[in-house]
Design a protein that fits this description.
With 510 residues, the protein is of the alpha/beta class. The protein has two domains: 359 residues, no CATH class; 117 residues, no CATH class. The chain is built from 20 helices and seven strands. It has a five-stranded mixed beta sheet. Helix 18 links the parallel strand 3 and strand 4. Helix 3 crosses helix 4, helix 12 packs across helix 14 and helix 17 packs across helix 18. The longest helix has 40 residues.
């Protein structure tokens, strides 16, 4: 007699429960670990918060919606609020994929697709780094869901929701252009989609998309250099074929699927004995139209992104692969057939649990271990709040005013802007065009703090900072220790205070 594990019984009897337990468990882990162990926002999140603080219509990192959402979340809950916003985005995206799968392959197989998505590293490892690619996930998935409801199921009212979701996707990431072009081609290439344009709803959806993205189109017209930089081109772009960017993108897509490959290999039972039994998860036959829809939007986005990277010679934002592989799990389950046999379900269950738990626990362990073993300087282990509090207080004591600007080294300035109580504006001294909301004259008028990595006891400023602010007087470098210092050197920050033009003189305090 073959004994079936409890997980398989739940999958057969309560598939929706399995979906919510798996999805919310992953979200909780990736919310709790950064909230408890990260002393600084990871990756590009400090830059995203610095840009979002300005509430502009666009930047050199992409459209504005992700930056606005990051800033709102930070104002409401600090860094913890941003981590929560990231996991809400992941949960909504998984729900949309689950709903789409339930409409095409049935509830049980849709849950299997979501379980496979746990093995796709792009949906868990970088998920605390809230930004354009993370916010694009729910709108990408919702656009595919409501397009299917509109065209595949004939629910014409879904066109309006599709229009809003697609517009918000384009405001979240330029990757949305790939999905929009694919949907237009897909609609024109099949009779069912083409016939929809005899009705007014698709045209109204296009108007909604235009209405939502119109302000950002104005930004692209006013600041074409920043927009071109966001998609990986220079201000005077010139197409040139280079295979390296495309190969990097393909490698990123393949590497992010290693967990799925492990789960598929284990579930197949290979190599297995003859007459080895396995529980069966069945479904009704999937119509050809549904299969084509899943395969096209599982495979084509990554393929088009690779072709674009090949054409422009730079991957730009295309290395953020999560939206491009959103339907991979659903495509695997669709290709598996109407009867999915789960060999060695207990081993598969433990492997899935490992893919769920080990990455977030590994992130926490890395903060404690890597500084002692490899001497690795992790971005999320920087003392952002300590640095921000110190420089904010130093400026307040000397001028009697909150710190309005921080400038100099980009990484240090962005970390201090996150940690300082007054949330100062960031001015990028080396690349001032990337911070158009501030100018050196603004810092001279209102005051600010200049910071740079110090390499000598005197804290000599770099030439670029000295050229921009020739009258600065460098202070004694400030030393900061990390929470987990390990074998790393202490952080030595050279700095100078630019007093406001109308501030009374005050004695210097070290």
């Amino acid at each position: 007699m073959h004994y079936v594990s409890l997980i398989v019984e739940f999958l057969r009897g309560r598939p929706a429960w399995v979906f919510w337990i798996a999805t919310l468990s992953q979200a909780f882990l990736w919310f709790a670990i950064p909230s408890l162990f990260y002393s600084a926002p990871p990756g590009e999140l400090p830059a995203i918060l610095a840009i979002g603080h300005e509430f502009r219509l666009g930047s050199d990192l992409g459209p504005p919606l992700a930056f606005w959402c990051a800033e709102w979340a930070f104002r409401l809950g600090g860094a913890v609020g941003v981590y929560l916003a990231a996991q809400i985005s992941i949960v909504v995206a998984f729900w949309a994929v689950f709903s789409l799968g339930r409409a095409i392959v049935g509830t049980r197989h849709a849950v299997l697709a979501i379980l496979f998505m746990t093995g796709i590293a792009a949906f868990n490892v970088p998920s605390p780094e809230f930004g354009p690619s993370i916010l694009a996930l729910p709108f990408w998935a919702l656009s595919l869901l409501f397009y299917w409801r509109a065209v595949g199921l004939g629910q014409r009212g879904a066109w309006f929701v599709f229009g809003v979701c697609m517009g918000l996707l384009l405001l979240s990431s330029y990757l949305g252009v790939i999905l929009l072009l694919l949907l237009l081609i897909y609609t024109a290439a099949n009779p069912r989609g083409w016939s929809e344009f005899r009705h007014p709803e698709p045209w109204l959806a296009l108007l909604l998309i235009i209405f939502v993205v119109l302000p950002h189109v104005g930004f692209i017209e006013w600041s074409p250099a920043l927009a071109l930089n966001a998609i990986g081109l220079d201000a005077t772009p010139m197409l040139h074929v280079s295979a390296s960017a495309a190969l990097r993108l393909i490698a990123a897509v393949l590497l992010t699927h290693l967990g799925v490959a492990v789960l598929m290999l284990l579930a197949s039972g290979w190599p297995r004995r003859r007459r080895e039994l396995a529980p069966v998860i069945e479904r009704l036959p999937v119509p050809l139209y549904g299969r084509i829809y899943i395969y096209v939007f599982a495979l084509a986005p990554a393929l088009i992104a690779a072709i674009m990277a090949l054409a422009i010679g730079r991957s730009g934002p295309l290395d953020r692969v999560a939206p491009l592989v959103l339907l991979t799990g659903l495509a695997v389950i669709t290709a598996a057939g109407d009867q999915v046999l789960l060999y060695r379900e207990r081993i598969v269950s433990f492997a899935w649990l490992g893919l769920l738990v080990l990455p977030p626990l590994g992130a926490a362990l890395a903060i404690a271990v890597l500084p002692w073993t490899l001497g690795t300087n992790l971005s999320m282990a920087q003392p952002a709040n300590t640095m921000g509090q110190y420089f904010g207080d130093a400026f307040q004591r000397r001028t009697g005013q909150p710190l309005p600007y921080v400038a100099g080294d980009q990484q240090l300035a962005e970390l201090i802007a996150v940690g300082a109580p007054s949330r100062p504006h960031v001015f990028l001294t080396a690349t001032p065009a990337r911070s158009p909301w501030a100018k050196p004259d603004d810092i001279r008028a209102r005051g600010g703090v200049l910071v740079w990595p110090s390499t000598d006891p005197a804290g000599t400023p770099p030439a670029a900072i000295k050229a921009a602010f020739p009258d600065l007087v460098a202070e004694v470098p400030r030393i900061f220790a990390r929470t987990m210092q390990g074998r790393l050197p202490v952080i030595r920050v050279g700095w100078a205070v630019i007093r406001p033009a109308n501030a009374p003189p005050a004695p210097a305090t070290r």
